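I have been asked to look over a protein record a colleague put together. Alongside the sequence sits a line of tokens, each denoting a local backbone shape. Please read both lines and tell me whether the tokens look consistent with the sequence. Take the sequence as given and treat only the tokens as open to question. I have pasted the whole thing underneath without changing anything:
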Amino acid sequence: MFKIMLIEDDTTLFQEIKERLSQWSYHVQGISDFAHVIEEFTTNKPDLVIIDIQLPKFDGFHWCRMIRSHSNVPIIFLSSRDHPTDMVMSMQLGADDFIQKPFHFDVLIAKIQAVLRRVYNYNTEQQLDLKTWCGATIDYAKNIVTTHTNSVELTKNEMYILKILIEKKNEIVSRDELIKSLWDDERFVSDNTLTVNVNRLRKKLEDLGLGQYIETKVGQGYIAKEEATL
């Protein structure tokens, strides 16, 4: 899992970006003290830095210079300032890219993936097979769910059910919708078979301490809850 340091003082935007990037299995770190950014950078050793220009204490250009004096880690500027000299300055200081606010999240993801692929020879296709949910890593390709302490292997049906529920997390997914989805995927599942698969899935997730995040809504279906963001 790649570690991204997001140097952004807008707490609302920080939480939004953190939540969205975590859905792509990136671990996002913030800054606790904007007067000591370089110390936190050195301690956390991120794989990529996203930095705003307008920051408390010192601006993003200052911290870009400081980071570049210590490391060649890729840096992406994220700023609401639209003057061409800002982009030129960021490139001259060694930044890898510049994104102007407001931005579309798909653009941010694409640029992050492009930078990581270029710097670390990173395979984005592999990343698409990974998902983070409630602190666990879901490997769709290998049918494995992993936490920091343990892992379990799911059947193809169990993984497919979990994938559908996670994609619609916090929404009730009806039994009919699950059965139709499995049928369309050429995996025939009857009503009774669905119950058996969901029960086995929940039991395996319980072994990881995640069983409570899959709930049965009597007469409605199932729901995958999302762990509260801290």
The longest strand covers residues 3-7. The chain has two domains: 3-127, 129-224. The two ends are 19 Å apart (CA to CA).
